[in-house]
Tyrosine decarboxylase (Hevea brasiliensis), 487 residues
Amino acid sequence: MERELRPMDAEQLREHAHKMVDFIADYYKTIENFPVLSQVEPGYLQKLLPDSAPNQPEGLQNVLDDVKSKILPGVTHWQSPNYFAYYPSNSSIAGFLGEMLSAGINMVGFSWITSPAATELEIIVLDWLGKMLKLPEEFLSSGQGGGVIQGTASEAVLVVLLAARDKVLRRVGKDSLKKLVAYGSDQTHSALQKACQIAGVHPENCRLLKTDSSRSYAISPDLLCEAISHDISVGLIPFFLCATVGTTSSTAVDPLLALGKIAKSNGIWFHVDAAYAGSACICPEYRCYIDGVEEADSFNMNAHKWFLTNFDCSALWVKDRNALIQSLSTNPEFLKNKASQANMVVDYKDWQIPLGRRFRSLKLWMVLRLYGVENLQCYIRNHINLAKYFEGLVAGDTRFEVVASRIFSLVCFRLLPPDNNEDHGNKLNHDLLDAANSTGKIFISHTVLSGKYILRFAVGAPLTEERHVTAAWKVLQDEASALLGSL
């Protein structure tokens, strides 16, 4: 009979945590045995679990048995070596250990005084990471800017858009909100549109400029200049530009230097979203893709995507921290303290949307220390080489084509329709995606570029090796053969 579990008892924690670590280690040991994409039907879990919580405590083993038999079948296994969808969301031993330690300490670090180490470590590790990326000095804590960990890139774009909004409204008056215009491309993450919705920017004033294959789906500076000139001429106020390094659809890279100069000359806040591809820029040979970042007001990358740091950990740097603080700070009586009142410390509650925040810098610190810069660079390069390998496999099969230029570790490709009918081609590739994912052997995702339904193969899971890429290609070839044979 298990002893009743107390809320926090050191010896019970030791005993149960050992069992949990064993369970997680066994999960990773056998992760290739699971269908990558969950094969359950909607509502499956409701049929398997009781309709109310138990009155009496149950044992951990019973719960773990249910996880194995009822929960894991409904999990899509993002850490599987056969996961090639969307973009990666990396786990690692270092990231997991940092997450475990953060959960163990379990503090709520909204201001410096609530846990000085949490605030100060975050400042330090984001300076470390900023230096690895060779960000301009203005983004580091030694100047007027600095870094902060947000939950996601969506939160990052929201907080800087709010700062940009309030900065311009202080100048032109708060009644001018309806005149504010934000710019991105039709490849910019939908987080920009959501940020505009939350910030009160009129939906029709969120300009998504058209891109095409002639510029590899990057924003055209000329098109941006035209849009800004037109908006100014009709009395609108351009205030925010979001450029992307590594778009979601195809890893397009916007021309930062040219865009930054346009933004600066028009008094527009310039944000660079490098959520996925920013990780690659710690490698000297890929740093060129953020050339021009010196023109930006803010820069963001997700350490939880491709940087071995468990979700969530989105690094945001700003050149002017006061712009964030002026927009997002509150100072109720119950939060006042000597250090904050004397402006001696950073209070990260004023750099984000919520008040509460976890000790996320611990896991990033442990990743940087336990792997080191050189190993992290090798990790990124290995995935890029695996993507090059997959790209070569696609190019070697005349039934397929590579659709967009591969820069990092995403390959965009499609199965060519035998009759050159594009409508048929879209259905053919949709069917290929469904067929491949339904095998449970791999998971890939799709996009649409220039009206064409495109398959995306993103390499980046921590356990992926060349053999997994080879096996994935065989699944795609076999399913393509079956589809073409049925025509």
The domain at 99-368 is CATH 3.40.640.10 (Aspartate Aminotransferase; domain 2). The chain has a mean pLDDT of 94. The CA atoms of residues 53 and 104 lie 25 Å apart. Residues 361-395 form the longest helix (35 residues).
